[in-house]
Structures are given as C-alpha cells and as structure tokens.
Design brief:
The structure is a homodimer of 213-residue chains. The radius of gyration of chain A is 20 Å and the shape is elongated. The relative contact order of chain A is 0.10. The longest helix of chain A has 16 residues. In chain A, helix 1 runs antiparallel to helix 4 and helix 2 crosses helix 3. Chain A folds into 2 domains: 66 residues, Winged helix-like DNA-binding domain superfamily/Winged helix DNA-binding domain (Arc Repressor Mutant, subunit A), CATH 1.10.10; 113 residues, NAD(P)-binding Rossmann-like Domain (Rossmann fold), CATH 3.40.50. Chain A has a 7-stranded mixed beta sheet with strand order 5-6-4-3-7-8-9. A two-stranded antiparallel sheet of chain A has the order 1-2. With 213 residues, the first copy, chain A, is an alpha/beta fold. At the A-B interface, helix 1, helix 5, strand 8, strand 9 and helix 8 of A face helix 1, helix 5, strand 8, strand 9 and helix 8 of B.
C-alpha cells in the first residue's frame, strides 16, 4: 500500500472529482475515443470546464490547445495518481442484503479492489460462499484480518452494532474503514473512516429537487 | 416538494456537511444530550470546530458562548433546512442484490423517504414483494411512476443498462436520479443526477490510506 510513483497529495475535496474524471475517461477509452476537449469533458462529467482545467493542471500539462486531452494518456495518469496498481484487500462485516450486494458486485476486481474476507455473527451464514469469499464468524475477525492482510474494513451492519464492529476492526489492526451503517462511529485519530450514508444521498437529491422546482 | 419554510439555498459543497451534522445531532438527541460545544461536535463529526461554526453561522445564531449548541433546537433547525417534513416518493429500477438491499433498508421511512415502486425486466422477479413494494415490469415504469407520484428514481442496474433506464425515468417525468451504476449517464440540463460510486469510495479510502502510511 505504499505510493512510490506519485507522492503528491490530492486533497479530500479534489479526490472525488479526480475519481469522477477517471470514470468518464475510462468510459471514453472503452468507446475508442482518442482525444477530448475540456468543454466536451465538462458536458459529460457535468463539472465546469474551468474546474476541470484547474484540477488537471495540478498534475502537469495534459491539454493541448486546440486538440484537447489525450484520452489514453490522461487515463494512465489518473490511474497513477490514485495508485491502483496494487491490489487492495477488503474485509466486510455484516452479510445482510447490502453486504451480499457488495460481495457480489462485479466492478471491484478490475479496479484493483478485492474482497478477501467476510464476517457475520449469524450461524446460518457462516461457511457459505458469498461472492468469492466464505463467510466466517465475527469471532474469527482478528485472526482472519491478519492472515488475509486486510487493508480496508467495511461496516455493513445495523447502526446498533456499528461501533462494536469498528472497535473490532481497529483492534485487528485496520486503519481504514468504510462505514455503511447510518451512524457515526468513534475512532482514534489515526483511523480513516468514510461514511456512505445512502439516506443522506437521497436527502441531498430531494433538497436540490425541491430547491430547483 | 415545495420548500416554503426556508428558501435559503445550501450549496452542493455545504449540504453533505449539514446532513452529517444532522446525523450526529440526531444521535446526540437519542442519547438525551441537551447541549454540545462546537469543539465536542468537532470531535464526533470529525470536522474542524472552525468549519462547524462557519457552516452553522450561515443559518443564524445557535451557539451560546460558553454553553454551546442546544441539541434539540439545532436538530429541529437542520431538519427544517433540508426540508424533511414531506414524504418523498422513490422508485427503484433493478431489483438485484443492491436494489433488494435498498428496498429492504429500514432507515429511510423515518427520514421521510419511502419506496413506492420497483421495476425489473426479469419475469421471475415481477409480482414479488420486496421491502414494502411489489416489483413491476419495467415496461410499466411510465404508468406506475405517474400513478405513484414518484419524485426520485434510483438506478440500480448494471452499467450497460443504466442509460436506457435513465432515459425511461426522464421520459416518465422524473427530474431527480440517484445512480448506483458505475457509469456516467447523459441527461438534459434540467435533470439532477447524483452518482453513488461504491468503488470510488473504496478507491478514495485506499488513496488516503496509502498517502497516510
């Protein structure tokens, strides 16, 4: 998980846009487009051309006046910036509907992300194959996380159990947590937690819908 | 979906923080806390106290020097800002693992969000109850969206089918789309699309993990 090729730190604010550009550029590359102007990119990505030029200018000179960005160069560079060369091992806790959906999601592998372990407390789920992993009892978490060299822990349990799971992940040596439980987990400073709050996404959408009407 | 009580527009940048504060404040209210300082709020929310004071100052005076924010007042005000008084009707397309997980998610109702329709193209799924709705054939989408007064459409199909589904939702009169497919959908300007890209969340987490190590 070391970053050797590019140590320049992208801020928390810019990174989501970089990932969004990468998504667009990967799609363009699949459609065999070779160049794209910042204006065209702006339309597809729904981000202003000014913002795009500013964000990409931080990483050196890509755009050619008059011809635009070279799609394959830009793709290679963005992939390098966010460092997807090494596989990242993921462990998931909570094999309910959402957990199963994540374990079965097809798009992670090609992005250098792989599930290597999954945990639940319900006996009926233990030993079952879900996606590419066999569900283990949560009591095995520490041992399994260390054995499988898990880098990122995903919390997909209910709000009530999220803090307990976060504590177990941290105790097992995990520094990075993606939390899907609709609650805030308390963690020491050195732990990075990202919350994916699905109802907040809907609320944000509703807010903008209501405002725009 | 009209906003009468508070027409002040929260920006796209600030809104996720407002929703995050609301999540924290709701949690504090459930724990029967009555007041909280911006410093304590900062620790729990993992956002600087300066940023919190700045964000909340936009909405009038809440904090009392020395005593902090009144939890129940702040909760009521934040709920008012994001306008959760009216129920928002949601229609979902794609009843796979992720779609089922969303339909069965317990937390939406109390947030004023409710699923009123779900669609799939697979005959085996049509007519089955999932969460609180009966899955309909995607060919019924337009009729059902209008009959059920759907405000927000969720795309939970594969990347290949996402554009087709977006087109159908828009044709049915939907202006707000939450897209879980790992692809960019093209829509007219008046349509609001929010992308939830789960692999981007993991990539962001990996990026920060790698940088911090």
């Amino acid at each position: 998980m070391n970053r050797s090729s590019n140590e320049k730190k992208v801020s928390d604010v810019v990174l989501p846009r970089i990932l969004h550009y990468l998504r667009v550029i990967q799609q363009l590359a699949r459609s065999n487009m070779t160049t794209i102007s910042s204006e065209e990119l702006s339309k597809i990505a729904n981000i202003s051309a000014f913002q795009i030029r500013k964000d990409l200018a931080n990483f050196g000179k890509f755009g050619q006046p008059g011809t635009g960005y070279d799609v394959s160069n830009l793709k290679r560079y963005l992939l390098d910036v966010i460092g997807t060369k090494e596989m990242c091992n993921i462990g998931l806790v909570g094999v309910g509907n959402l957990g199963s959906a994540l374990l079965n999601y097809k798009g992670f592998d090609e992005e250098g992300l792989q599930f290597v372990a999954a945990f639940d407390k319900e006996e009926s789920k233990i030993g079952k194959l879900c996606g590419n992993v066999i569900v283990e009892h949560i009591n095995n978490l520490k041992e399994s996380v260390q054995k499988n060299n898990v880098h990122i822990g995903i919390i997909a349990v209910s709000a009530n159990n999220a803090q307990m799971v976060a504590d177990k992940l941290i105790e097992a040596g995990i520094f990075s947590i993606l939390n899907f439980a609709p609650t805030i987990v308390s963690t020491p400073k050195e732990i990075t937690v990202r919350d994916v709050d699905l109802s907040n996404e809907l609320k944000a959408l509703r807010y903008f819908t209501a405002v725009n009407k």
